[in-house]
Amino acid sequence: MNVSATSRNLNYPKAAFAALLAIYGIICARSIDEGTFLDRVDLIAHEAGHLLFGYFGEFIMVIGGTLGQLLVPTGIGIYFVLRRELFSSSVMIFWVGQNLLNISVYVKDAAAMELPLVNIGGGEGMHDWNWLLLKFNVLAWDQIIGNIIYSLGVLFIAVSVGLGFWFSFEREEAVAANS
Q1: Is 70 a member of any domain?
Q2: Which of 40, 73, 105, 156 could potentially form a cystine with 95 if both were Cys, beta carbons 3.0 to 4.6 Å apart?
Q3: Residue 95: inside a domain, yes or no?
Q4: What's the Cα-to-Cα distance from 126 to each of 26, 67, 142, rounded to whole Å?
Q5: Which tens digits make up the pLDDT trace of 21-74?
Q6: Range of the domain at 143
Q7: What's the structural domain count of the chain?
Q8: pLDDT in tens, 76-99
Q9: Could you tell me if residue 132 is inside a domain?
Q10: What are phi and psi of 83, to 5 degrees?
Protein backbone atom coordinates (compact mmCIF):
# COMPACT_ATOMS: atom_id res chain seq x y z
CA MET A 1 0.00 0.00 0.00
CA ASN A 2 1.38 3.39 -0.99
CA VAL A 3 0.84 6.34 1.29
CA SER A 4 1.49 9.81 -0.05
CA ALA A 5 2.43 12.71 2.19
CA THR A 6 3.04 16.29 1.20
CA SER A 7 5.63 18.43 2.91
CA ARG A 8 5.87 22.15 2.38
CA ASN A 9 9.18 23.97 2.47
CA LEU A 10 9.36 27.74 2.56
CA ASN A 11 11.35 29.34 -0.25
CA TYR A 12 12.85 32.25 1.72
CA PRO A 13 13.80 34.45 -1.26
CA LYS A 14 10.25 34.21 -2.65
CA ALA A 15 8.74 34.93 0.77
CA ALA A 16 11.07 37.92 1.20
CA PHE A 17 10.07 39.23 -2.24
CA ALA A 18 6.38 38.81 -1.34
CA ALA A 19 7.05 40.83 1.84
CA LEU A 20 8.75 43.53 -0.25
CA LEU A 21 5.72 43.58 -2.56
CA ALA A 22 3.48 44.04 0.48
CA ILE A 23 5.55 47.02 1.62
CA TYR A 24 5.69 48.47 -1.90
CA GLY A 25 1.93 47.92 -2.27
CA ILE A 26 1.28 49.91 0.90
CA ILE A 27 3.55 52.69 -0.36
CA CYS A 28 1.75 52.74 -3.72
CA ALA A 29 -1.71 52.72 -2.13
CA ARG A 30 -0.89 55.44 0.41
CA SER A 31 0.86 57.81 -2.00
CA ILE A 32 -0.84 57.37 -5.36
CA ASP A 33 -0.16 60.97 -6.32
CA GLU A 34 3.59 60.37 -6.18
CA GLY A 35 5.45 58.49 -8.88
CA THR A 36 6.92 55.04 -8.38
CA PHE A 37 9.58 53.18 -10.33
CA LEU A 38 6.98 51.23 -12.37
CA ASP A 39 5.26 54.38 -13.62
CA ARG A 40 7.59 54.90 -16.59
CA VAL A 41 7.00 51.34 -17.78
CA ASP A 42 3.26 51.83 -17.30
CA LEU A 43 3.38 55.04 -19.34
CA ILE A 44 5.09 53.24 -22.23
CA ALA A 45 2.45 50.48 -22.15
CA HIS A 46 -0.30 53.13 -21.99
CA GLU A 47 0.95 55.11 -24.98
CA ALA A 48 1.69 51.93 -26.95
CA GLY A 49 -1.90 50.87 -26.28
CA HIS A 50 -3.16 54.04 -27.96
CA LEU A 51 -1.00 53.37 -31.00
CA LEU A 52 -1.90 49.68 -31.22
CA PHE A 53 -5.64 50.07 -30.70
CA GLY A 54 -5.82 53.25 -32.81
CA TYR A 55 -6.50 51.09 -35.87
CA PHE A 56 -9.88 50.04 -34.47
CA GLY A 57 -11.62 53.41 -34.21
CA GLU A 58 -11.68 56.40 -31.92
CA PHE A 59 -13.32 54.78 -28.88
CA ILE A 60 -10.96 51.79 -28.84
CA MET A 61 -8.01 54.11 -29.44
CA VAL A 62 -8.93 56.28 -26.44
CA ILE A 63 -9.51 53.35 -24.08
CA GLY A 64 -6.54 51.56 -25.65
CA GLY A 65 -4.10 53.37 -23.38
CA THR A 66 -5.74 51.93 -20.29
CA LEU A 67 -6.08 48.56 -22.00
CA GLY A 68 -2.37 48.62 -22.83
CA GLN A 69 -1.53 49.29 -19.19
CA LEU A 70 -3.60 46.31 -18.09
CA LEU A 71 -2.89 43.89 -20.94
CA VAL A 72 0.92 44.00 -20.69
CA PRO A 73 1.12 42.57 -17.14
CA THR A 74 -1.90 40.33 -17.79
CA GLY A 75 -0.25 38.85 -20.89
CA ILE A 76 3.00 38.26 -19.04
CA GLY A 77 1.02 36.74 -16.17
CA ILE A 78 -0.74 34.34 -18.55
CA TYR A 79 2.66 33.35 -19.93
CA PHE A 80 3.84 32.52 -16.40
CA VAL A 81 0.67 30.53 -15.64
CA LEU A 82 1.12 28.47 -18.81
CA ARG A 83 4.69 27.73 -17.71
CA ARG A 84 3.40 26.83 -14.21
CA GLU A 85 5.47 29.65 -12.69
CA LEU A 86 2.72 30.62 -10.29
CA PHE A 87 4.79 32.80 -7.98
CA SER A 88 5.82 34.93 -10.98
CA SER A 89 2.20 35.15 -12.11
CA SER A 90 1.26 36.48 -8.67
CA VAL A 91 3.79 39.29 -9.18
CA MET A 92 2.02 40.18 -12.43
CA ILE A 93 -1.27 40.40 -10.51
CA PHE A 94 0.50 42.94 -8.32
CA TRP A 95 1.50 44.90 -11.42
CA VAL A 96 -2.12 44.95 -12.62
CA GLY A 97 -3.15 46.26 -9.20
CA GLN A 98 -0.48 48.94 -9.26
CA ASN A 99 -1.71 49.98 -12.72
CA LEU A 100 -5.28 50.18 -11.42
CA LEU A 101 -4.08 52.59 -8.72
CA ASN A 102 -2.53 54.80 -11.42
CA ILE A 103 -5.63 54.55 -13.59
CA SER A 104 -7.77 55.64 -10.61
CA VAL A 105 -5.74 58.87 -10.37
CA TYR A 106 -6.32 59.52 -14.07
CA VAL A 107 -10.06 58.82 -13.76
CA LYS A 108 -10.42 61.07 -10.71
CA ASP A 109 -8.75 63.87 -12.69
CA ALA A 110 -11.27 63.59 -15.55
CA ALA A 111 -13.34 66.64 -14.58
CA ALA A 112 -10.51 68.83 -13.25
CA MET A 113 -8.02 67.88 -16.00
CA GLU A 114 -5.05 69.09 -13.95
CA LEU A 115 -2.64 66.23 -14.67
CA PRO A 116 0.06 66.85 -17.27
CA LEU A 117 -0.69 64.91 -20.44
CA VAL A 118 1.71 63.02 -22.69
CA ASN A 119 1.15 63.21 -26.43
CA ILE A 120 3.23 61.11 -28.80
CA GLY A 121 2.01 62.70 -32.02
CA GLY A 122 2.57 66.29 -31.00
CA GLY A 123 -0.09 68.92 -30.71
CA GLU A 124 -2.53 69.23 -27.84
CA GLY A 125 -3.04 66.12 -25.71
CA MET A 126 -6.41 64.61 -24.95
CA HIS A 127 -7.48 63.46 -21.49
CA ASP A 128 -8.66 59.89 -22.12
CA TRP A 129 -10.92 59.60 -19.12
CA ASN A 130 -12.48 63.03 -19.59
CA TRP A 131 -13.39 61.97 -23.14
CA LEU A 132 -14.67 58.53 -22.04
CA LEU A 133 -16.72 59.74 -19.10
CA LEU A 134 -18.20 62.57 -21.18
CA LYS A 135 -19.08 60.07 -23.90
CA PHE A 136 -21.09 58.02 -21.41
CA ASN A 137 -22.44 61.13 -19.63
CA VAL A 138 -20.92 60.14 -16.27
CA LEU A 139 -18.23 62.79 -15.88
CA ALA A 140 -19.84 63.94 -12.62
CA TRP A 141 -19.10 60.44 -11.26
CA ASP A 142 -15.35 60.62 -11.90
CA GLN A 143 -14.49 60.51 -8.18
CA ILE A 144 -16.75 57.53 -7.49
CA ILE A 145 -15.53 55.61 -10.53
CA GLY A 146 -11.93 56.45 -9.64
CA ASN A 147 -12.46 55.25 -6.06
CA ILE A 148 -13.93 51.97 -7.33
CA ILE A 149 -10.90 51.46 -9.58
CA TYR A 150 -8.61 52.36 -6.66
CA SER A 151 -10.35 49.77 -4.48
CA LEU A 152 -9.92 47.15 -7.20
CA GLY A 153 -6.23 48.02 -7.35
CA VAL A 154 -5.83 47.55 -3.60
CA LEU A 155 -7.72 44.25 -3.84
CA PHE A 156 -5.48 43.01 -6.66
CA ILE A 157 -2.37 43.98 -4.69
CA ALA A 158 -3.63 42.23 -1.55
CA VAL A 159 -4.52 39.07 -3.50
CA SER A 160 -1.14 39.19 -5.22
CA VAL A 161 0.75 39.40 -1.94
CA GLY A 162 -1.35 36.61 -0.44
CA LEU A 163 -0.73 34.39 -3.45
CA GLY A 164 2.95 35.34 -3.38
CA PHE A 165 3.25 34.04 0.17
CA TRP A 166 1.19 30.95 -0.71
CA PHE A 167 3.40 30.14 -3.70
CA SER A 168 6.50 30.71 -1.57
CA PHE A 169 5.86 27.28 -0.13
CA GLU A 170 7.25 24.55 -2.34
CA ARG A 171 5.41 21.28 -2.18
CA GLU A 172 7.25 18.02 -2.20
CA GLU A 173 5.44 14.74 -2.44
CA ALA A 174 6.93 11.83 -0.57
CA VAL A 175 5.61 8.36 -1.30
CA ALA A 176 6.16 5.73 1.36
CA ALA A 177 5.64 2.07 0.52
CA ASN A 178 4.01 -0.10 3.18
CA SER A 179 4.05 -3.83 2.71
Answers
A1: no
A2: 73
A3: yes
A4: 31, 16, 16
A5: 999 999 999 998 887 888 889 999 999 999 999 999 999 999 999 999 999 999
A6: 2-30+84-177
A7: 1
A8: 999 999 999 999 999 999 999 999
A9: yes
A10: -90, 0
